[in-house]
Amino acid sequence: MSVNKIKAIALCRVSTMGQMLDGNLEPQEERIVKAEKILNVEIVKWWKLAISSRKGKNAKRKDLREMLEYCKRYKSVRYLIVDEVDRFMRSINEYYWWKMEFQNAGVRLILANRPDIDPDDDRAVFDELIDVYRAEQSNNERIHKTAPKMMAKIRAGYYPSNPHTGYKKTAVKGFHEPDEPNWSAMKNAFIGMIEGRLDVTSGLKEATLLGLRTKNYGPKSVGGKPIDMYRWKNLMKDPYYCGVVKMSDWPEINENGLHEKMITPEQHKILVALANNRGKKFIVNRNNPLVPLSNEMECYDCLQAKKTYPRLVGYRHNNGKNRKSGETRFYYRYRCRSCSHGIRQEELHKELSMRLESLILTDEQREKLKVHFKKVWFQHIKNLNEKALIAEGHLTNLKTKMSDLIMSLAQNPDLKNDIRIEIDKLKEQINEAEQKANESKEFEKDLIEFTTFALDYVDNWKKQWWLLDKDTMRKCKQILFPAGFSLTHDKKVYTPETSLVYSFGTTKKAPEDANFTGLEGPVGLEPTTPCLKGRCSNRLSYGPLIGQKTDIFSLT
Fold first, then answer.
1. Do residues 86 and 135 lie in contact, with contact meaning Cβ atoms separated by under 8 Å?
2. What is residue 545's predicted lDDT score, i.e. its pLDDT?
3. 133-to-56, 82, 127 alpha-carbon distances in Å
4. Do 335 and 372 fall into the same domain?
């Protein structure tokens, strides 16, 4: 290395690996060496590579960043020599941005096709701008022409890109033939999965054992590696293997490609279904009827300790295979999510069933409850009375209008048709108003039906507890056990509060001082029990909000 000569770096670039293998870098290198002699500089480092320089690809080009870092590190470098403008890049904005980046580092860009021209000359600046413009337009023209040419090849049955896994290039561009052993390995695995002999995982293992490996197609590909599950599922869903030729999102599709098919279109549909269903073996079932208390009952100790997750969850359990029979016996259990304290499903259900059987609703309690239901009912019936008055007033007005129209009909026979139309409309409105007025007066009959239905329905809940759906069970739990229930450490069901409906079920007659007014409450307020202070599974309103027009109990 000469000490006196100015130092320079050089760039030789082509777009594809094929162009590099065809020897397109050597002419560039010869012209750069000639420019080196003319400039009387010494090239201390070369960059020779295949990389795209089209618009939008240059901001993060690895070669340019390496050259810029090299120039910043070695301040003696003064020139960057490239063969022509388009060998540097094909974008006007990016060209001058990178040129300024190197200029800020003290490095001047020199074109080998005219090294003896002063780059600061006005004519040279103009010529350079024209060359950069032509380079970008040439790239744009190439892009616009390439797509139609490639789509024409697709219509002819060729695939104008790198071969798919399992295929290799031939002397005819775009026509690919089977590549062994990949082709046979994939076909055998595909057929095995289609026939049901193999699942997706076993199919991948089978193909790998038969020699399936990645191939070196393109500068970024790494060959000789096993196919992973993500890639394997994409291969299963690729329609190329059933004879379809298409490129990304282009509208051009040829279902009869010239390459040899691995499978038929019908078989491909089966593979797609298998690939899409992969990974869905376990489905969360939050309403398993075999463990209905899952997330509904809590662990007493963890609840007192204010643990984050004190709820019991149900799950299927086994103790391994039987040594004699070799069979695995499964059974269901509940366990606390915090302390993992567990209990057998049958044991917990038996404990809760005994607690439910101890709840008795006597005939005297039924009658007493009906009295208090009626009190609450009348609080909500006030709105119906107001509606009845409004309906009757509206009905009177409609009848008055009807009389007026009949009088007008006699006085104006020319308007007979129009008046008759109005009379028909009024008749319909009168019928509706009469119906509403009658409905508003039948609240006493509705009350009897409601109370009978409500009491019978609650009793039926208690008897059919284990057959209730999840939502109905939550409502029933709130009515029977307002503060919820929990499992103690000695595997007993603890119910801190029982509904007033059943509080005196163990006696033949309710005490005289038994107070049921707590069931009435202010309209729209929920009972002030601990269950409504943070445990959402026990949340249920005893009555509608103020002004709400629904019944006091939503039991259906």
1. yes
2. 37
3. 15, 17, 10
4. no
- Count CB atoms within 10 A of the CB of residue 2: 9
Query: What domain range includes position 128?
Result: 6-145
Q: Decide: helix, strand or coil at residue 224.
A: coil
262 and 233, same structural domain? yes
**Residue 177's beta-bridge partner residues?**
168
Tell me the pLDDT tens digit for each residue of 6-60.
999 999 998 888 788 878 889 999 999 999 998 889 999 999 988 887 777 788 8
**Backbone φ and ψ of 77, nearest 5°:** -75, 125
154 found inside a domain? no
CB 271 within 8 A of CB 259: no
> Are 332 and 290 in contact, with CB atoms under 8 Å apart?
yes
What's the pLDDT score for residue 134?
87
Residue 421 CA to residue 430 CA, distance in Å, equals 14
Give the pLDDT confidence of 385-430 residue by residue, as tens digits. Answer: 666 667 667 667 767 776 776 666 666 666 666 666 776 777 777 7
383 & 464 share domain:
yes
Judged by DSSP in three states, 67 sits in helix
Longest dimension (CA), the chain: 125
Cα–Cα distance between 140 and 242 in angstroms, integer? 34
Q: What share of the chain is helix, strand, coil (3-state, %, to 5)?
A: 50, 10, 40
- 121 and 26 in one domain? yes
- Decide: 132 and 111 in contact? Cβ < 8 Å: no
Query: Which residues have C-beta within 8 Å of that of residue 490, sequence separation ≥ 6?
Result: none
Cα dihedral sign, 464-466-467-472: positive
Mean pLDDT check: name the lowest of 162-176, 195-209, 436-450, 461-475: 436-450
pTM above 0.90, yes or no: no
* Token duo for residue 357: 């059987």
Q: What is the structure's pLDDT at 17?
A: 81
Give 268's pLDDT tier (boundaries 50, 70, 90).
Answer: very high
Q: Are residues 370 and 501 in the same domain?
A: yes
Q: Which among 192, 346, 338 is positioned nearest to 262, based on CA atoms?
A: 192
Cβ-defined contacts of 59-67 (< 8 Å, 24+): 59/94, 59/97, 61/89, 63/11, 63/13, 64/98, 67/9, 67/11, 67/102
Mean pLDDT of 527-535: 36
Give helix 200-209 / helix 182-194 axis angle, nearest 10°. 150
The two tokens of residue 333 are 């259990």
- For residue 548, what pLDDT is reported? 38
Whether 17 is covered by a domain: the verdict is yes
Q: Which residues contact 406 (CB under 8 A, 6 or more apart)?
A: 423
Q: Which of 330, 357, 384 is the last residue of a domain?
A: 357
What are the pLDDT digits (tens) for 426-469? Answer: 777 777 766 766 665 555 556 666 667 666 666 666 677 888 88
pLDDT tier, 160 (very low <50, low <70, confident <90, very high otherwise): confident
Residue 345 has pLDDT above 60, yes or no: yes
Alpha carbons 453 and 515: distance in angstroms, whole number: 23
